[in-house]
Specification:
about 20% strand; about 210 residues; Rossmann fold; five-stranded parallel sheet; about 40% helix; alpha/beta
């Protein structure tokens, strides 16, 4: 007959640690629009705003679309360890602030942030528990159309972004999930992102992320 231990057993914790979701993909894939759509739906996530030295566009608001800052201030943040990752993209610096990510995870809140493909790779190296989602256009032709419709790039810059996009798409195997952002179907893309997050939350043996 099996002997039953009289020693108290540690309770099983069924609450999984919070997620760190990284949304990436080529310029023009629709990352900003998709994050805005998910945020407007009231989905419970902590949305991290990227810091950049890029000039603010006419339709952008400081501290909402990006934290716009000077190159001097940006490099000070890099040197003091205030950025989780940083990269020079098309001549401008972009970085993810460390503090709000750390605070949200400590509160037990799922975090979603946006980076370029290079930044996503950096985060995966230092935080392998992160969930990487690649947002892709249905085709290079569609991506070309979107970039032209933005009217924010000169012909040389447009050609550079398209060449870079092709290189970034080749990095797809390093990501955990892919979402295709079809024209006029941003609601579908947002639903797929939410489904991925739900699936990631249900994974067994997820490790806690510490910063």
């Amino acid at each position: 007959m099996r002997k039953v231990s009289s020693e108290p057993q540690s309770p099983i914790n069924l609450l999984s640690p919070p997620l760190l979701i990284v949304l990436s993909g080529p310029s023009g894939a629709g990352k900003d629009a998709l994050l805005t759509k998910i945020k407007e739906s009231g989905y419970p996530l902590c949305y991290i705003t990227t810091v950049t030295t890029r000039a603010k566009r006419a339709n952008e608001t400081d501290n909402q679309h990006y934290h716009f800052t000077s190159r001097e201030k940006f490099h000070q943040m890099m040197e003091s360890g205030e950025l989780l990752e940083s990269a020079n993209v098309y001549g401008n610096w972009y970085g993810v602030p460390r503090k709000p990510v750390k605070q949200a995870l400590e509160r037990g809140q799922d975090v979603i942030l946006k980076t370029d493909v290079q930044g996503a790779a950096t985060i995966k190296k230092i935080l392998p528990q992160a969930v990487l989602i690649f947002l892709a256009p249905p085709s290079i032709a569609e991506l070309t159309l979107r970039l032209r419709q933005r009217h924010t790039e000169l012909p040389f810059d447009l050609a550079l972004r398209l060449r870079t996009a092709e290189e970034e798409i080749r990095q797809l195997p390093y990501f955990d999930y892919i979402v295709i952002n079809q024209p006029g179907k941003i609601d579908q893309a947002a639903a797929e992102i939410r489904a991925i997050i739900t699936a990631a939350r249900c994974r067994v043996n997820r490790q806690k992320i510490s910063l």
